[in-house]
Design a protein that fits this description.
Strand order of the largest sheet: 1-4-5-6-7-8-9-10
Shape: elongated
CATH topology of the largest domain: Porin
Strand content: over 45%
Radius of gyration: 24 Å
């Protein structure tokens, strides 16, 4: 408990000393980089079929046993919602970077996944119909590629082949591809449509120790799958 108190005190002191300067630096950076934007979007997504594996392994002083099942699962179409913050380089405004976060629920037979991808993206745009009012183009075709950190809550029910429901929080990495078209309604507000392809792998592993008198046991629950989806998105973009 004393170590926890000291750790909390050290964290509080660090934030007190450095948070104001970090915030000031961030505000100064944002002031110097004017071509920033925030996107909000939603759309529909279709999924590729995936192989889902669920395994429960039990070890004790009296031996061990393992139950596993691997099935091909067809996932139903669903909706996706997301937001993105990004900026275009001042020295070359054709290129930009963004952080994108979205949410979707993936459902298949006896499988449910609440997926939260966080993607770091590199974008390239083309200025079309440029004017003095719209120096970067009234219409802007663009494309992007990035890496996505996937976090998900996964529930797999393959009973009775696997004796219990396997559930937990899993992580993984994936690839995120984008292609879209933005139309600027005003100098600050635009609308866009976008195609997205997301591909990645997810896995969970949960270990539980049970220590009743005079015995010892360990149970490990594991699940893994791949996620592949194509999405059609519509959104609004606000230049800051």
């Amino acid at each position: 408990m004393r170590n926890l108190f000291y750790g909390f005190a050290a964290l509080t002191l660090t934030l007190t000393l450095f948070a104001p300067s970090a915030m000031a630096g961030a505000l100064s950076w944002m002031k110097d980089h004017k071509d920033q934007y925030i996107d909000l979007y939603s759309g529909s997504t279709g999924y590729e079929s995936g192989r889902v594996t669920a395994t429960i392994t039990h070890h004790s002083l009296f031996g061990g046993r393992q139950s596993t099942d691997n099935r091909k699962v067809d996932f139903a179409p669903s909706n996706v919602f997301g937001a993105r913050w990004g900026f275009w380089l001042e020295e070359n405004p054709l290129y930009g970077f963004a952080i994108d976060i979205s949410y979707q629920t993936i459902k298949g037979e006896n499988v449910k996944i609440h997926l939260l991808p966080i993607s770091g993206m590199f974008f390239l745009r083309y200025p079309w119909h440029t004017t003095e009012k719209y120096p970067h183009g009234r219409i802007q075709p663009y494309g992007g590629i990035g890496l996505s950190f996937l976090t998900a809550n996964i529930t797999v029910d393959f009973t009775p082949d696997v004796p219990d429901v396997v559930s937990g929080t899993g992580e993984g990495m994936g690839v995120d591809l984008r292609a879209g078209l933005k139309w600027m309604l005003t100098e600050k507000i635009g609308v866009f449509t976008e195609w997205r392809y997301l591909q990645g792998n997810l896995c969970i592993k949960d270990e539980a120790d049970i220590l009743p008198p005079f015995t010892w046991s360990d149970t490990t629950e594991e699940a893994s799958t791949s996620v592949g989806s194509q999405q059609l998105l519509f959104g609004i973009s606000v230049t800051l």
